Amino acid sequence: MINCRTLIFITCIFLFSCKKNFSTGISNEILIVSSYEDSLYSSPTIYNFIQQKNKYLPLEEDYFKVKWIMPSYFKEHINRPLILMLKLNNPNDVTGDKLFDRIFENKLDNSKINFIKNFYALEQSIIGIEADDVIDLNSQLNNSKQKIFNEIDDKVFSLISRKYYKKPKNHFIANKIKERYNINIFIDHEYQIIRDTNNFLWLGRGVPSWGDPYRWILIKEIDECVTPLECLDIVQDTFNILDKSSHIKISSYDDVESYRYKYNKNYFIGGSYKYYDIVKNNGVNDTVPKVGGPYISYVYNNENSSILVIGLINNPGNDKMIYLKQLESIFRDITN
What is the pLDDT of residues 253-270, one digit of tens each? Predict the structure, then answer.
C-alpha cells in the first residue's frame, strides 16, 4: 500500500517530468528538418521562398537565418523555437517521412500546410509542409505564403521581445513618453535623452567599442497620415528638423531598400538612411556623407492623433538585421 508521502513524491516526479521548458535558440533562425533526398531536391525552392523577406540595410541581409538538419539529428534540436518539417512524397524515403508522420499524425487528411504550437517546448512553433514533388511544393508555398510568414514573424517577434524585456527598464524615459504622447513603450536602461524639445523626443544608446552599436529612437506627434507615401514624407520632414548642421536623407518610396506594411491599423515604413554634415564651401552649403544604415518607422494611430516613432541603427560592416527586428518588435508592442 502506498502511503501519503510516497504518493506526493510520485506526483511531484510526474508533474516536473511533464513540465515543458521554454524554447531555446537564435530568435530569427528557422530549423528545417528533412531527409537528405528531400533537401537535395527542395533546397533551392525553400531558400528562394525564405529570401523573399530579405532586406537591404543598405546591402542585402538575410531576414531569417536557416539551419538544415536530417531527422537523425532532430532529438538534439527539439527545443528550437521555430521548426519547419518538410516531406516530399517524390522522391520516396523512409526516415524523414516517419518523423513527419509521427509529429503530424493528427492532421486533416487533405491538409498540406500544418502548424503545431508548444509541442516539445513553450514558445515553439512547428510548421509542417507536405508536397507531392518540388513543383507542388512551390505551389503550396505560394498559396500559403502570407499564412506561413505571419506564423514565422509572430514567433520571431515574440522571442525577441521575451529576451529583450529581461533588460532593466528606463522608467524615467518611459514615464515621460507616456505623459507626453499617451503611449506605453519599453525603453531599456541604456537609452539616454539626446534632445527633448516641444516638437520631438530624441533618444540614443550605443558604445561600438563594446560591441553595442549606435541606436536612436525619435518620437513625435503628427497629423494623421492616410497613405504610406504620405507617411514617408512626414518621416523625411521629421529628419529635416533634427539639426541645422546636418541632414538625413532616407531611401525613396520605390527604392529597393524601402518597404512598408500595415500592422493592425498602423503603418510600418522602413528603408535606409544617409547622414550628412552640412559645411560651407566657398560660401555655399555643401553636404559631406558621414554614416548610414537602416531605419524603421512606425505610425501609431492614437485616439485623436498619430504618433511617429522612428528607429535608426548604425553598425558598419556588422549584422544589423537583429537590431532592426528588435526595434520593430518594441514598436509592435506599443499601446496607449
Answer: 999 999 999 998 899 999
Indicate the length of the chain as a whole number: 336
Model confidence, pTM: 0.85
DSSP annotation of 123? T
| DSSP structure string for 29-80 | EEEEE--HHHHHHHHHHHHHHHGGG-EESSSEE-SSEEEEE-GGGGGGGTT-
Give 249-255's long-range contacts (Cβ < 8 A, gap of 24+).
Answer: 249/273, 249/274, 249/276, 250/295, 251/58, 253/228, 253/229
98-113 pLDDT, tens digit per residue, is 899 999 998 877 889 9
Name the domain boundary from 163, 198, 222: 163
Separation between Cα atoms, residue 190 and residue 38, nearest integer Å: 46
Decide if 254 is inside a domain: yes
Instruction: Work out the mean pLDDT of the chain and round it to a whole number.
Output: 88
Grid cell at residue 304: 485623436
**258 is written with which cell numbers?**
524601402
Total domain count for the chain?
2
Report the alpha-carbon distance of residue 146 to residue 83 in Å, rounded: 17
Q: How many CA atoms lie within 13 A of 256 on its CB side?
A: 8
User: Residue 224: what residue type?
Assistant: E
